[in-house]
């Protein structure tokens, strides 16, 4: 017969696990606020799998930490792209978290991607 772990021990184990997880592994940001802040982004990175031009990456459904790192690198100039560097220059860390939360929460099916050439 299996052993039953007391409820208090389960709570303690869960708390210890959360303390061991690095902060950057936990989702952050407000997706609702991010949707409003992402309005300039939607010009090229539209919702879902629709993007402007074939060189524009589909970021809907992308990992939040990847998006945060990318936007931070564009903001600092580590990553070079004229439009992205200009758009991210005045973003705060909170803006980056929120925008990343918004895009990471969108559905994406890469097989259904559409590139608009406007």
Please count the helical segments: 5
Largest sheet: 2 strands, parallel
CATH architecture grouping = Orthogonal Bundle
The N- and C-terminal alpha carbons lie at a distance of: 67 Å
How much of the residues is beta strand, in percent? Answer: 5-15%
Global morphology:
elongated
Summing up helix and strand content along with how strands pair, one would put the structural category as mainly alpha
Q: Which H/E pattern describes the elements?
A: HHEHHHE
Strand order of the largest sheet: 1-2
Stretches where pLDDT is under 50 for at least 5 consecutive residues are none
**Count of domain modules:** 1
**CATH topology tier name:** Cytochrome Bc1 Complex, Chain D, domain 2
Question: Could you tell me the radius of gyration in angstroms?
Answer: 19 Å
General description of the model:
A two-stranded parallel ribbon has the order 1-2. It has about 120 residues and is mainly alpha-helical. The protein contains five helices and two strands; from the N terminus they run ααβαααβ. About 45% of the residues lie in helices and about 5% in strands. It has a single domain, classed as Orthogonal Bundle (Cytochrome Bc1 Complex, Chain D, domain 2), CATH 1.10.760.10.
């Amino acid at each position: 017969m299996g052993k039953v772990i007391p409820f208090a021990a389960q709570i303690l184990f869960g708390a210890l696990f959360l303390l061991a997880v690095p902060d950057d592994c936990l989702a952050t940001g407000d997706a609702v606020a991010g949707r409003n802040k992402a309005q300039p982004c939607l010009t090229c990175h539209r919702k879902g799998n629709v993007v402007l031009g074939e060189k524009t990456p589909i970021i809907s459904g992308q990992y939040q930490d990847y998006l945060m790192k990318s936007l931070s690198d564009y903001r600092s100039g580590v990553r070079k792209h004229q439009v992205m560097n200009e758009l991210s220059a005045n973003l705060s860390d909170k803006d980056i978290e929120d925008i990343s939360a918004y895009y990471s929460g969108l559905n994406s099916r890469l097989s259904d991607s559409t590139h608009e050439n406007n």
